[in-house]
Amino acid sequence: MPPLFLSLLVLLPVLPLPHASADADICIVGGGISGASTAFFLTNYTTSLAGAQLRVFERRHKVGGRLGTVTLAGDSFEAGGSIIHPRNLHARRFADLLGLAAKVGGDDDWLGIWDGKSFVFQTLRPPPTGSSWWRRKLHSLLNSLLLLRRYGLSLLKMDKFVQEMLQRFMLFYNGLESRPVFATVEEMLQWTGLYGLTRRTLEEELLDAGLNTQTIAELVTVITRINYGQSTHISGLAGAVSLAGSESGLWAVKGGNWQLAAGLLKTSNATLHLQEGIDSITDAGDYYVLRSNTGSEYNCTATVVATPLDEVNITFSPPISIPPRKMQHTHATFVRGLLNPGYFGVNSASNVPELIGTLELPDIPFSCISVLKRYSEDDMAYKMFSRAKLDDGLLDQIFSARKETIRINWAAYPHYEAPEEFGPIVLDGKQLYYVNTFESAASAIETGAVAAENVARLIISRLSLPQRGVEPDAPHIKSFAEQEEEGSQRRHVTYLFRRPSIGDIVFFKVPSAVQVCLLPSAPPLLNQILALSTLKMCSFQFQNYGVNKDVVFIKRVLATPGDFIEVRQGQLIVNGIALKEHYTATHALYTMEAMRLPEGHVFVMGDNRNNSCGSRAWGPLPIANIVGRYMTSFTRSSFQ
Question: Is 479 noted as a catalytic residue in this protein?
Answer without folding.
Answer: yes
